UniProtKB/TrEMBL annotation, chain A:
The keyword Translocase applies. Part of the ABC transporter FtsEX involved in cellular division. Has ATPase activity. One of its GO terms (biological process) is amino acid transport. One of its GO terms (molecular function) is ATP binding. Pfam families: ABC_tran (PF00005), NIL (PF09383). The gene is metN. Homodimer. Forms a membrane-associated complex with FtsX. This is Methionine import ATP-binding protein MetN. Belongs to the ABC transporter superfamily. One of its GO terms (cellular component) is plasma membrane. The keyword Transit peptide does not apply. Signal peptide: none annotated. Keywords: Amino-acid transport, ATP-binding, Cell membrane, Membrane, Nucleotide-binding, Translocase, Transport. Gene3D superfamilies: 3.30.70.260, P-loop containing nucleotide triphosphate hydrolases.
Automatic annotation (TrEMBL), chain B:
It is found in: Cell membrane. Keywords: Cell membrane, Membrane, Transmembrane, Transmembrane helix, Transport. This is ABC transporter permease. One of its GO terms (cellular component) is plasma membrane. It is a multi-pass membrane protein. The lineage of its organism: Bacteria, Bacillati, Actinomycetota, Actinomycetes, Streptosporangiales. It comes from Planobispora siamensis.
Length: 320, 218
């Protein structure tokens, strides 16, 4: 649905050359929620702005819904943007317009007639649960309500893709959950493809199907979220399940979707080993439970026990 | 001088001041608003960046603002003749008043428009809005409170500039104060004239404040 390849972005800032993107490839499949995770300054915001060409990449191509945006002229690009929704960290609502007026704005841009506009606005406000706030001004709304207006506005043009620029970063935890739930239900019910950028792990954990970890203008790792966690040396797994630095010989077992299997007791029963637990974390990720367990395994049959665990399709990492 | 003598003089002068200020306010907005918008959109990172145009417009505005009004009034006499057909009288004063106030108003427009968040403009761009739509439906409406405040300051400045219009026979309250109050030692008339000016400025400022505050509430 979104294909980005070979994306470079270089800024010239008072003679200083800043390379924000250093060759980024990104492939977002239709109907998935794709999260780009990274610290501020990693280039994720630039990446997102390059997807709808708010920023012109220095080189590389961007395609959305089969249309190569980087090849379009200005008028065609404006039309293409009407089919790409975007929501913003600080909502970016028009303070001089009511809620209904804000949602109507993209429809005015598209040239939709007054009667049809009013009907569509009512429908959209109903969808985000703000039907009773149509006449209110943004200043009278809470942060969560403002973001709901932002979402309604972004959906006005029936987009196939929604871009989310840190949409929950300015919200409190409870409101964040309700906005994430709304995005998830829009994804399911409308088949909306969502590309979101965030620095918050819990956003990725909560709603993303796939994730890319960005650092210093490059994508460090990307893929399906459960698949990534199970990959050796994954920085996503390390961040998701923070464990203290391992002592020499400590064993880290990473599992996805099989948290209820009694692997530890099986190992102890089958082999002549002792297992002591050093640490562990369990999280619900992309709808399945996944976790990491740090243990010390001692005894004569340690190697056999490790082999048994690896054969069980668990990711077993032994600290040197 | 008695009240009966002062009254017609005061009414006539107030009418002339009102005429000068109203017409020059209209033309100041027609000239200064586009100029202010142009200053913002041609700037670096604006909707239509053009370094050259931005510099040229900035220079014109600065020149306009640095000329003392009394000098400007004399300097533009040929232009006044071209536009109005005469160089003296109330209407002739509208030309230098407009030229004096427009650059001033343009800077205030520029400041008001810069208050509109970059976010808001980018959001409109992301929705596929073109430049004119963004100017007409985002920048100007979002800045309307600041624009009204700027206009209020400009009208007050115009009232004060118009006091000098006597130099080219424009009449008005300022002229009355100088000719009768100062040159003929009619102290009472002088004081009354000043009081009328204070009341007018006070009314304009209060009205402007009320409107700006109401627009800013949202």
């Amino acid at each position: 649905m979104i294909d980005v390849s070979g994306l470079h972005k270089v800024y010239q800032d008072r003679g200083r050359r800043v390379e924000a993107l250093k060759g980024v490839d990104l492939h977002v499949r239709e109907g998935e929620i794709f999260g780009v995770l990274g610290q501020s300054g990693a280039g994720k915001s630039t990446l997102l702005r390059c997807v709808n060409l708010l920023e012109r990449p220095t080189s590389g191509t961007v395609s959305v819904a089969g249309q190569e945006l980087t090849a379009l002229g200005e008028a065609e690009l404006r039309r293409a943007r009407q089919r790409i929704g975007m929501i913003h960290q600080h909502f970016a609502l028009l303070s001089s317009r009511t809620v209904a007026g804000n949602v109507a704005f993209p429809l005015e841009v598209m040239g939709v007639g007054r009667a049809e506009r009013a009907a569509r606005v009512a429908e959209l406000l109903e969808l985000v649960g703000l039907a009773d706030k149509a006449g209110a001004y943004p200043a009278q709304l809470s942060g969560g309500q403002k973001q709901r207006v932002g979402i309604a506005r972004a959906l006005a043009g029936r987009p196939s893709v929604l871009l989310s620029d840190e949409a929950t970063s300015a919200l409190d935890p409870g409101t964040t959950q309700s906005i994430l739930a709304l995005l998830k239900s829009l994804n399911r019910e409308l088949g909306l493809t969502i590309l979101l950028i965030t620095h918050e792990m819990h956003v990725v954990k909560g709603i993303c199907d796939s994730v890319a970890v960005m650092r210093d203008g490059l994508i460090e790792e990307s893929g399906g979220i459960t698949e990534l966690i199970a990959r050796p040396g994954s920085s996503l797994a390390a961040e998701l399940f923070p464990l203290p630095a391992p002592e020499s010989g400590a064993v880290t077992i990473t599992f996805t979707g099989r948290a209820d299997e009694p692997v530890v007791s099986e190992v102890v029963r089958k082999f002549d080993v002792d297992v002591s637990i050093l640490g562990g974390a369990l999280e619900e990720v992309a709808g399945v439970s996944a976790g990491r367990l740090r243990v010390r395994i001692t005894g004569d049959e340690r190697d056999a026990a490790l082999g048994y665990l690896a054969a069980r399709d668990l990711l077993v990492e032994v600290a040197p | 001088m008695t009240w009966e003598e002062m009254n017609p003089l005061l009414w006539e002068a107030t009418g002339q001041t009102a005429l000068m200020v109203l017409w020059s306010t209209l033309f100041t907005v027609l000239l200064g608003l586009p100029l202010g918008v142009a200053l913002v959109v041609t700037d670096r990172g604006g909707l239509l960046p053009s370094r050259l145009l931005n510099r040229v417009l900035g220079l014109i505005v600065n020149i306009g603002r640095s000329l003392p009004f009394i000098v400007l009034m004399i300097a533009v006499i040929p232009l006044t003749r071209l536009i109005v057909g005469t160089t003296i009288g109330t209407f002739a004063a509208v030309v230098p008043l407009t030229l004096g106030a427009a650059p001033f108003f343009a800077r205030l427009v520029e400041t008001a428009l810069r208050e509109v968040g970059r976010d808001t403009v980018q959001a409109a761009q992301a929705m596929g809005a073109g430049r004119w739509t963004i100017i007409g439906k985002v920048l100007l409406p979002e800045a309307r409170s600041g624009l009204v405040a700027g206009l209020t300051v400009t009208v007050v400045a115009l009232i004060s500039y118009s006091a000098m219009a006597g130099v080219i026979g424009g009449g008005g309250l300022g002229d009355l104060a100088i000719r009768y109050g100062y040159q003929r030692f009619e102290t009472t008339l002088m004081i009354v004239t000043v009081v009328v000016l204070i009341v007018i400025v006070q009314l304009v400022q209060t009205l402007g404040d009320v409107i700006a505050r109401r627009l800013a509430r949202h």
